[in-house]
Amino acid sequence: MLFIHNDVAHELLTMKDCIEVQDRAFRDEALGTATQKPRSDIYAPCDLTEGYYRGGTVEGYANGYFAVRIKSDIITWPRTADGGLNEDKHCIEPGTYCGLVLLYATATGEPLAMINDGVIQHMRVGASAALGARYLAREDARTVGILGSGGMARTYLDGFCSVRDIESARVFSPTQANRERFASEMSDRLGIPVEPVNSPEESVRGADIVATCTSSMSPTLKPEWLSKGQHVTILGPSEVDDTVLAVCDVRIAQATEGGLEAAGIERGIGHSAVSWVAGTEEERRRLPPPKKRAGGTGSAFTLPDFADMVTGRAEGRTSPDQITFYRNLGNQGLQFASVGGLLYEMAMAAGSARALPTEWFLQDIRD
Known about the structure:
The chain is an alpha/beta fold and about 375 residues long. It has ten helices and 17 strands.
């Protein structure tokens, strides 16, 4: 049994490897040889009067590995300058977080690894955004416009550069220092000019690939900013609305989430797709109201998905003038199983993870 720290994941994982292993897992799901359960969250009252506890899990099987990702967060919804809502999170105190991936071998049931989820989380999301660009962006896409300057925006741009010959990028985020820092760091890392700009429209207009990578719970894109030939993708479920989808000629969801109607389930709370909520009526007032998602009600997304596209049940881009859209949400269980399995193999080969006695995690009491 290994404990794999973020430092090890940072040293070993590459974006190109993460893209390839997820491409295989997504295709295997389309064939029925990989599977997952959608993300689900439990909300419960916490000590913070303006926040709520959220515990979340996703599960998946791919390529001989079963993974469970567990998150423990205190969630708040601070107001933005324009009156909208962002979603913020922490564990214990701001700036600290707790997420773990538990990895098992399906051949024997052996527990293989416990993995910090920080690096693997960013890498798997950036790689899946890159998969959308691999199949839907124009082959001659050379420029990127990004809204947001956090860790996910960094892996998104890294991913796009891994599947297209990107020559330049523009970035906007509300805090000038943050977008300037992002531009400087990513220019050095990727060897391309990354320009900080003063408005979201300036970042988006004319870019071949457009990505919104924010914590916003309100739309960040406007349809009039988009133009022929662009490829658009998102990070959060609320970053686009139906007005943006209406101008997109091709619309593909990474995964669809259906069959989840049941008593006690709430949809669309914050960034949660499916939630079970506890608390008094007064405590529940801390939660933002459920929202309709673009393209469907709640998380029951109505677009064709990646499996439809790669099996020919739905068309991808067929013309360089089309605007394509990729909803980079879902498939989390597949991502953690595939990338987690890859990281485990790398850590075993490198001998760079901390070994824990497997017997600590076994017992002689049958459950």
